[in-house]
Amino acid sequence: MKRILVSVFTVVVLLTMALTMSGCGNKVVLNVFNWGEYMDKSLLDQFEEQTGITINYKTYDTNETMLAKLEAGGSSYDVVFPSDYAVSEMIRKDMLLPLDFENIPNFKYVDDRFKNLEYDPENKYSVPYFWGTIGILYNEDMVDDPVDNWDILWNPKYAGRILMKKDVRDAMGASLKRLGYSMNSTNDEELRQAQEALIEQRKLVAGYYGDEIKDLIANGDAAMGLTYSGDFMELYWDEDADFSHISFGVPREGTNLWFDTVVIPKGCKYKKEAEMFINFLLDPDVAYQNAMTIGYPSPNTVALDRMRQEEPEAFELEAFWPDDEIIERSDVYVDLGEYKSIYNQLWTEVLVD
Amino acid sequence: MKRMKILAYPYSVWMAIFIVVPILLVLLYSLTEGDIRNLAELRFSTQSYERVLEPIYLKVIVNSFILATLSTLFCLLLGYPVAMIVARSNPKVRGMLLMFLIVPMWMNFLLRTYAWMSILSPNGFLNRLMDLLGLPRLEIMPGKTAVLLGMIYNFLPFMILPIYTVLSKIDKQFLEAANDLGANNMRTFFKIILPLSIPGVVSGITMVFLPAVSTFVISGLLGGGKTPLIGDLIEHQFMWEGNWHFGSSLSIILMVMILISMAIMSRIDRNGQQEKNGQSKV
Q: What range does the domain containing A175 cover?
């Protein structure tokens, strides 16, 4: 009797836990997994009202954490927002479902130059979301040289006031580009030189940070730092504080051109609804509102034209709208394949002195 | 009372699922190579343990131990007197002092570390205060000093509380007896209070050293990522490199080292207890 009681009790408790955690129901719930602060949240309500589909919105901070979560399994997501090289890695690892463009008629608004890019050559799996560059965010009061080349991050004059991005691809990429190599180099000699330069640079670097770089520079804690163009745009659009002394330089040698995309990973439960959501994001009105909130140029032609009318000054900014020449010389990250771990090894050796 | 044991069953199932199984999985991953998503195809391999022995990773491990030891030491030096002050204050004040110690712990440690960032940063609160006072600016963040400060701040309550508990339980009659027999304060402290408080000190050291040696994030935020600790390295393997095998073997090594330090500490504790028992028999 007692044994039965014990097992019944155990089962009941565990079942209750399982049920409360899964929160099941018949309603369609789309699990959306996006970068932090990367969507106008009111659009989610708008979509829910229009379609009756509930959205469960979660965020991540790097492609790598997102990939790790997806690869670990256990959780299923319907819509994810990986960047270029992460898209190729996901295609290589067979983690994506091909999109049915019949369900995404608004794809016609996407600028042709953002279609069939190297990371998804036949444009089967992804739809572009936003794009931008990496460059040097700096405080005009603390820097008196022109910030238009990678070399300035190696200038001893600014020792202890330089911040580097704590990201393998961005740090190695900047170092490779400075030496005139491709940001996707898989040449051992080039990689060795790039690593040597980063070790050399280490004594000038105050710290290696991620998202904190924007705040540290805005606060005057450092003179310059390697970061995303969007970090500058966020300060630029800020209405509560004056950041007019903060600028953004895109190196002439060329930089990284990144594209964030929308994809549907394998394991998605509601593919059709997920495609509806992607189509919704590509609607010109929605894309316009989203781009105005996030502050990046929209790959949506109609939305972009409207932005150009509304905010013509933004198009004068290198961070928002880099010169065609620079774009020409820039690289889009590609999946490094087996070189991924070599990059990581070299980078770890830079960080551990 | 025995019937209440039933209540422990769900917990033991819970423990088995969420503690024992994951540890076994970590052990499995640490001893294999191959695709992590396909358990059937994993092959036995010791290569991730061999990699731990590379000088660069040994350096990270040594760095973590040095920093953890230093912060434990500082916590002890700072925490012991504080625990004594709290234990000796009158009950009303005591409650308030304990509140001051505990309330900051209600906040998430990440938040507190970010707060330290804005205090210590080059243009932060501390340096603005120095400017106001006409003193030279301090350059501690990012740097090892800031990491150490952040660790001491975060773990200090774990040192104070166990020592305080033991001190407040010491029978006052011992101290009176020592005084009556002519011992001065110094002598009373070293002969009576300190030996009796050893159990508190030992659990304080354990409770500070363990989280300190496995900590991550603090060194990234306050140290500018220039002194990665073993915790950062493990996080990096899982979240960035996706090398679960190496991450797992690092975790196992860390676990073994923690177990060894715990064994040493409990032995010291036990010796202390025996000595005490021996004395009281005399």
A: 132-257+322-351
